[in-house]
């Protein structure tokens, strides 16, 4: 049983790592979620998966080890907090950069990867809520911030 | 003694505060910082007979770390030396420094340095010895770089620090090895016999030598000392003539009692010391800057001291200790003299100066005495200690004596060169009208020069001081004595030869300069140093330009590949720890299918909603697994969190574009698959290897005390709120902090407007701008 779960945990981590390495920011967040699932399951697995009672003293023993469960309980909540934070950061990054391509963020978040002429997106707020391409073109061409990569 | 070490640090804090208020008068306060060190003198004078005092302050007893200070003859002698020169340097600097100097900083650095140096010589604990050693490196870095707006000062400070920090690391390793081999971190409690037997002996010896050579500017580490002359002159007098550079000499003297028996010890130190003596003197002769001349002269004299202590016999230690006293007296005096010349004429260049004896008679007298002592002329102290030096080298063999004579002849020549600024026709840079310096400047110089004279005329004084160290350095049975006249000895004949050679060198000064220009080596310690530092600079710029600022995925790839390499190495080294265990029950197969379906599905999904929902499969799969493996609380929490996560994603998707799958290049794709696969396999192996319990689990404790102690029958809950309450508090804090961060991140941006167009669904294909 532990072997099966070890393999599953490996699969989850592999999927998570592959997602983390992808270019789109939402996929990166999802990848981290998968890694945190895998971590939780790993804690449970290494403590031993046995067919005994849950650690509720009203039931007859023997009981499962309660300590890993307490640790996972904390980890689930922290994992959720991490996901929320990352998602918000992704959101802000998208708003500032105007695109969601992690690879193009580089050291200058405001670079526009899709622009053919290598121009820069607006380094100020660029709301994602301008739904259409036409809206964008109405704007003044944004000045290239100094120090950015062309 | 503990007070003597820590009082300067206390006053340093006071001086930092007083500096801007009292200005240069802070120097009087600073001089008082050395009072406890000076109070050690009566104890020193009782010394050859008295028992060394030991003061122990417990610090980290479990690690055998104590602040132990041991006042044996040698330590006290050195502490008194530091106290005297420190006091004089503080007083001298009051008159020397300009009104605009930052006195608070200057004096606090100076006092911290003095305190570290006192700690270094007095400590009995090896770890503390290393600590004080490094503190002298750091404080001297600050002092040399005091005028940090000048690039030469910065360069000198960095150079001094790099070289002595290299030695400091060597000392740390040496101290660790000595403590391991000798079974104690106490210098006096070392089991020297066991250390000699242990395998650590030779490495510790070599590392100690490296430390001593870097600190005391022996070849080829002499490069930092001349550039360290960028420090203000009082500092130079204190650091680089009397104390700091002698830290290496102290180390060799003290550790010579441990390592002295080894042939390697003397076999390395004596040749290196003699080579430094000759080469330093040769370089000193070629300088035109008075202070640079003194710097190289210090290098040379340190070589002499090193070679004598390196002999590790009674004769060498006696001669070295006598010369130590003489050197401290004449070198500090000469530094003060050079400071006066600089102060009065505005230059230190020998060719620009001449005939200063008329304008500066007192200074001239002091300089004459000190320089004669340095040159080894009677009736000064330097003459006597040089005779002892010859005597000791004579017993090593004629070659050693020849090198010693050559070095001393060069010393004779550069001492004269130094005095030339006082002789001949009066000459000074335009605008400078040299006249005698105020007593604040001349008195310290004159006092030290008179000491050099007293050491020569009344050899008994120097002898008594030298003898105080005899029990500490084991030369009590040496029957030599200090005297101006030992009869016609080989040493005296060598001295006469030295004078003749020295006179020839002075006479043929022009020819020597031409020879010196011809003999300048193309590659020297400085070119090597600058070559190395520049290579490091260029390399690091190159590395940073190519590794920093990469896109996030590339940085992650590098990190993960590195982790894969390291973990792969671990697996290769220890493959036997993986135990596949357990049976395959059919009951959990649906759970497994759910988990795997999520992982596979998310990789295949194109739309963002699909991706989130498929992720949910794995989330619910985890919950099911928790339920299957008897963890109902976890399953409940996971379900709730899963629901909230989906809501969170949906909220965010309102403002995020669709999950378009931007293509990776083929090479990256293959690499990413490989990395992900390796990570998966690695984690699988890790889990398998961790399944065995290495120690009995501690959970029976919780099961037993959950109800008794916590009053709850759900052990997990009791664990969270009672046994690990602070963890839970931390968890809540994290969630709270995240909530704040999320709130501020969202509020920072423009409030988003909802999309109005009805056909603008979330899962449009990737939005491309033309």
TrEMBL record, chain A:
Organism name: Deinococcus terrestris
Entry keyword set: Cell membrane, Membrane, Transmembrane, Transmembrane helix
Main location: membrane
Protein name as it appears in the record: Cation transporter
Family label: Belongs to the CPA3 antiporters (TC 2.A.63) subunit C family.
UniProt region (Disordered), positions on chain: 107-150
Subcellular location: Cell membrane
Membrane-crossing residue ranges in chain numbering: 6-22, 29-49, 69-91
InterPro entries membership: CPA3_antiporter_subunitC, NUOK/Mnh_C1-like
Keyword Protein transport: no
Automatic annotation (TrEMBL), chain B:
Top-rank lineage group of the source organism: Bacteria
Location in or out of the cell: Cell membrane; Membrane
Stretch forming the signal peptide: none
InterPro entries: CPA3_Na-H_Antiporter_A (IPR050616), MrpA_C/MbhD (IPR025383), MrpA_C/MbhE (IPR046806), ND/Mrp_TM (IPR001750), Proton_antipo_N (IPR001516)
NADH-Ubiquinone oxidoreductase (complex I) chain 5 N-terminal domain sequence ranges: 62-107
MrpA C-terminal/MbhE domain sequence ranges: 668-752
MrpA C-terminal/MbhD domain residues: 593-657
Gene Ontology MF: a single term: antiporter activity
Start and end residues of each NADH:quinone oxidoreductase/Mrp antiporter transmembrane domain: 124-411
Gene Ontology cellular component terms for the protein in this record: plasma membrane
Bilayer topology annotation: Multi-pass membrane protein
Pfam families (UniProt xref): MbhD (PF13244), MbhE (PF20501), Proton_antipo_M (PF00361), Proton_antipo_N (PF00662)
TM region(s), chain numbering: 73-94, 106-123, 129-148, 160-180, 200-225, 237-257, 263-285, 292-312, 318-338, 359-377, 397-419, 440-462, 482-507, 578-604, 611-629, 635-657, 669-695, 728-746
Keyword Transmembrane appears in the UniProt entry: yes
Gene Ontology BP terms: monoatomic ion transport
Chief location bin: membrane
Record-given protein name: DUF4040 domain-containing protein
């Amino acid at each position: 049983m532990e072997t099966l779960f070890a393999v599953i945990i490996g699969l989850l981590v592999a999927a998570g790592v592959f997602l983390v390495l992808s270019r789109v920011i939402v996929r990166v967040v999802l990848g981290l979620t998968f890694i945190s699932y895998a971590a939780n399951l790993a804690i449970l697995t290494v403590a031993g998966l046995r067919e005994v009672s849950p650690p509720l003293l009203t039931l007859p023993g023997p009981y499962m080890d309660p300590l890993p469960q307490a640790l996972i309980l904390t980890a689930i909540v922290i994992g959720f907090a991490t996901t929320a934070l990352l998602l918000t950061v992704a959101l802000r990054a998208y708003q500032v950069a105007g695109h969601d391509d992690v690879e193009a963020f580089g050291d200058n978040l405001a670079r526009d990867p899709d622009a053919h002429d290598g121009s820069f997106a607006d380094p100020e707020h660029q709301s994602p809520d301008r739904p259409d391409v036409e809206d964008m073109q109405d704007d003044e061409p944004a000045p290239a911030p100094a120090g950015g990569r062309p | 003694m503990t007070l003597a070490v820590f009082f300067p640090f206390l006053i340093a804090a006071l001086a930092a505060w007083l500096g801007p208020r009292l200005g240069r008068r802070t120097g009087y306060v600073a001089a008082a910082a050395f009072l406890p060190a000076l109070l050690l003198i009566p104890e020193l004078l009782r010394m050859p007979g008295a028992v060394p005092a030991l003061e122990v302050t417990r610090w980290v007893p479990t690690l055998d770390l104590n602040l132990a200070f041991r006042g044996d003859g040698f330590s006290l002698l050195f502490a008194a030396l530091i106290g005297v020169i420190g006091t004089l340097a503080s007083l001298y600097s009051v008159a020397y420094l300009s009104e605009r100097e930052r006195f608070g900083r200057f004096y606090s650095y100076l006092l911290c340095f003095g305190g570290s140096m006192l700690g270094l010589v007095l400590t009995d604990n090896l770890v503390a010895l290393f600590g004080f050693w490094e503190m002298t490196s750091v404080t001297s870095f600050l002092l040399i770089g005091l005028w940090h707006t000048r690039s030469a000062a910065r360069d000198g400070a960095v150079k001094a620090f790099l070289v002595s920090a290299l030695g400091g690391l060597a000392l740390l390793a040496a101290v660790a090895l000595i403590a391991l081999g000798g079974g104690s971190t106490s210098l006096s409690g070392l089991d020297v016999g066991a250390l000699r037997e242990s395998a650590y002996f030779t490495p510790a010896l070599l590392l100690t030598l490296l430390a001593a050579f870097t600190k005391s500017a022996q070849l080829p580490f002499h490069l930092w000392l001349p550039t360290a002359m960028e420090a203000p002159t009082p500092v130079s007098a204190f650091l680089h003539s009397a104390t700091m550079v002698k830290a290496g000499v102290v180390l060799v003297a003290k550790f010579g009692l441990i390592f002295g028996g080894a042939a390697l010890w003397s076999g390395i130190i004596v040749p290196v010391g003699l080579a430094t003596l000759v080469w330093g003197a040769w370089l000193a002769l070629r300088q035109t800057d008075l202070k640079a001349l003194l710097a190289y002269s210090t290098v040379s004299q340190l070589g002499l001291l090193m070679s004598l202590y390196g002999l590790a016999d009674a004769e060498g230690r006696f001669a070295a200790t006598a010369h130590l006293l003489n050197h401290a007296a004449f070198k500090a005096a000469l530094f003060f003299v050079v400071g006066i010349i600089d102060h009065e004429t505005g230059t230190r260049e020998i060719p620009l100066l001449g005939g200063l004896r008329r304008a500066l008679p007192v200074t001239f007298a002091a300089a004459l005495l000190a320089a004669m002592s340095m040159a080894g002329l009677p009736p000064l102290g330097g003459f006597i200690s040089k005779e002892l030096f010859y005597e000791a080298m004579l017993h090593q063999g004629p070659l050693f004596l020849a090198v010693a004579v050559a070095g001393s002849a060069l010393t004779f020549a550069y001492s004269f060169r130094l005095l030339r600024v006082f002789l001949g026709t009066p000459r000074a840079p335009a605008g400078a009208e040299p006249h005698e310096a105020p007593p604040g400047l001349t008195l310290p110089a004159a006092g030290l020069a008179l000491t050099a004279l007293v050491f020569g005329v009344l050899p008994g004084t120097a002898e008594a001081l030298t003898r105080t160290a005899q029990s500490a350095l084991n030369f009590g049975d040496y029957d030599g004595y200090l005297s101006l006249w030992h009869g016609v000895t080989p040493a005296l004949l060598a001295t006469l030869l030295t004078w003749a050679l020295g006179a020839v060198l002075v006479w043929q000064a022009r020819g020597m300069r031409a020879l010196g220009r011809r003999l300048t080596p193309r590659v020297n310690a400085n070119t090597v140093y600058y070559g190395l530092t520049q290579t490091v600079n260029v390399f690091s710029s190159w590395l940073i330009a190519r590794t920093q600022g990469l896109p996030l995925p590339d940085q992650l790839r590098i990190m993960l590949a590195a982790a894969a390499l390291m973990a792969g190495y671990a697996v290769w080294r220890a493959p036997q720890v993986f135990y596949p265990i357990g049976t395959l029950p059919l009951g959990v197969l649906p759970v497994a299918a759910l988990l795997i379906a999520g992982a596979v599905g998310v990789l295949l999904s194109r739309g963002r909603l699909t991706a989130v929902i498929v992720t949910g499969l794995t989330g619910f799969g985890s919950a099911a697994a928790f339920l299957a493996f008897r963890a109902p609380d976890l399953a409940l929490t996971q379900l709730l969190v899963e629901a909230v996560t989906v809501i969170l994603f949906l909220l965010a998707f309102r403002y995020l574009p669709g999950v378009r799958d931007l293509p990776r290049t083929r090479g990256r794709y293959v690499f990413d698959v490989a990395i992900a696969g390796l990570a998966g396999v690695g984690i699988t192996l890790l889990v398998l290897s961790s399944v065995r319990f290495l120690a009995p689990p501690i959970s029976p404790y919780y099961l037993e005390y959950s109800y008794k102690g916590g009053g709850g029958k759900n052990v997990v809950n009791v664990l969270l709120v009672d046994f690990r309450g602070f963890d839970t508090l931390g968890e809540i804090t994290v969630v709270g902090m995240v909530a704040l961060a999320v709130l501020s991140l969202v509020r920072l941006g423009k409030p988003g407007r909802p999309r109005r167009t009805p056909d603008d669904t979330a899962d449009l294909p990737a939005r491309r701008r033309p």
